[in-house]
Design a protein that fits this description.
Helices cover about 35% and strands about 25% of the residues. It is of the alpha/beta class. The chain has a single domain (about 5-190), classed as Spore Coat Polysaccharide Biosynthesis Protein SpsA, Chain A, CATH 3.90.550.10.
Length: about 250
């Protein structure tokens, strides 16, 4: 019989078949049992990831919380245990599977991405590595850390950048952010939509004076020079729309 760890896997889904095919089946193959909190959004009950995951966190009874996308696959049976032990050993950390450092190029990760299973990271890590911001696909922390921060439902009112905001807020409150070497596959990497850029504008305003730049796994914007930051956002959004029309 598999031991049970004090970890809740929290996921909001809009497609149960995907959830079952990827996340649930890979959880069942793990060498430990855990609490599972799956939030059904097939009928659009929640308008944002922040509101859905905050709701899910209230339903979790575990000491540690793991927030994941519905299309995350744990590629071997030791991954949940690795996440759990990393949190036990580093209680002041918010951890993930991919992240960036403000002011540095490249992504720190060992995960794979997309249908072709390409490496997500340009910096391959071998141990917990400090970063500033994590990718949305996987984030974990102690529940008491989460409760001091929570996902910002006002700033992040859609399905983008809620983990970016959480990480920046965590750093402002004195916590650390880091990436753990995980054997994880993110099946469907995201594509920025209009709401992504709108949320980024709100983040620029929220963190002006606290960070020199806002940096995610797909975009870097200056914070202090707010006019330049907004102009860059406008050009990136326009380029993204043009590329979609070409496709």
């Amino acid at each position: 019989m598999k031991p049970t760890i004090d970890l809740a896997v929290i996921c909001v889904y809009n497609n149960y078949d995907k959830l079952d095919q990827y996340l649930i089946q890979s959880i069942e193959l793990q060498n430990v049992n855990c609490e599972k909190v799956f939030i059904d959004n097939t009928k659009n009950r929640f308008s944002s990831a922040a509101s859905a995951l905050n709701y899910g966190a209230t339903k979790a009874n575990s000491k540690y919380l793991l927030f994941v996308h519905q299309d995350i696959v744990f590629n071997d049976q030791k991954q949940l245990l690795r996440i759990f032990r990393s949190l036990e050993e580093n209680p002041s950390f918010v951890i993930g599977s991919a992240g960036v450092r403000i002011g540095e190029k490249g992504i720190f990760s060992t995960m794979i991405d997309g249908s072709k299973k390409t490496a997500a990271g340009s910096h391959i890590i071998t141990s917990l590595t400090k970063c500033d911001v994590l990718d949305e696909c996987l984030m974990a922390c102690r529940k008491d850390v989460y409760e001091k921060i929570r996902f910002d439902q006002i700033t992040c009112d859609y399905w983008d950048l809620y983990v970016v905001d959480f990480c920046l807020e965590a750093k402002c409150k004195g916590y650390s952010v880091g990436v753990v070497p995980l054997n994880v596959w993110h099946v469907s990497p995201g594509n920025p939509q209009k709401q992504f850029y709108q949320c980024m504008k709100r983040l620029l305003k929220k963190y002006r004076g606290k960070f020199s730049k806002l940096q995610t796994c797909c975009i870097t914007i200056p914070v202090e020079t707010n006019t330049i930051g907004l102009a860059k956002l406008f050009l990136m959004e326009k380029r993204n729309r043009m590329l979609k029309k070409i496709k």
